[in-house]
Structure formats: structure tokens, C-alpha cells
Amino acid sequence: MKKKDRKRFIGRISDASGIAQYALQEKMADEQVNQAVQHLEILKLIKSANDYNRYCQGKKTEEANNKLKAFLNPENSEIVSAGKWLLNALSKNDEDRKNALLEKELVHKEDYNATASGLRETISAMSDDSQSVVQQSAENIQQLQNTIDTLRRQQSGIKQYILNNYGNSEWKHMSRYFDNEDMN
To answer: Is the Cα dihedral 79, 80, 83, 88 positive or negative?
Structure first.
């Protein structure tokens, strides 16, 4: 198959299926492209299910990221709370500090030093982990934005196709089934 034909066929498959051209280019052999281009109507039938699947996956990813952010939030950590309490107790004067530490049975200097050191290391590790999660979340957001942009372009192409071939009234009728208001 010629490169130009392959590229044209993959473009048609992408429009019908909603799958990105780079993915089709990478994963489909020439024979598969030929077979798929012969069944574009079938691909068009499952496109809305594919779009909905992506939407649901995006929502699940968003929910998982929110849960992860809440989990990694230092304000929710018992270790950070204990560290704050300890720093507060140690900032008091001698007698008040001794009483505060006695309440928690932390009067032994060696125990205190080990606990404070461990808390600092834990807080530092949590900070490093949260930075990693924030970076991964930013990458996920960028990927989702790219997917949304692609879907919007595909949606615009579908809208234009329907407007050209079936008219504005059919488009308005079909657009009622979508949640997105900017489709009209």
C-alpha cells in the first residue's frame, strides 16, 4: 500500500472511529487498514460508545486523582499532626514542655530525638512523594486536555458532516442527546 493511500485511509478510519491517527498508524498493518476502511459504517456505529467510554475513564481518573490528592495532603496525615504537636510542645518553656511531653509519655531525651528525626524524614519523604504525584497529575491532565482537544476536533468534523449532508435541523435534533451546550 502506498504511504499516501495509507495515510488517507487512516484519516478516514480515525474520523469514523474516534481513535487518534497516530495510534492507528502505529498499531495497524496495511491489511488491517484495508479491512477497516471497508467497514467504516460499523466503526461509526460504535464511535459514540467509544466516546462515552473515554468520558467515563476520564471521570474515573479524575476521581482517583482527587482521592490520591486527599490521601497525600499533609493536613490529613496523623504523622504530620503528631509532628506539629511535638514542635508546639517543644516550643514551650521548660516546665510546660516537660508536662506536655509527660502527657504523651515522651520525656526521655533519646526517644524524643529519635521521634523528631523520624518525623522530619517522614515529612520530607511525603513532600517528595506529593511532588511526584503532582507532576504525574499534571501529565495526566495534559494528556486529558490533548484527548479533549482531539475529541472536540472530531466532534466539529462530525457536526460539519451532518450539517452538510443532513441539514441544520437534523444536527439540532441529534445535539439534544449530548450534555455539552457549546455543540449548538
So the answer is: negative
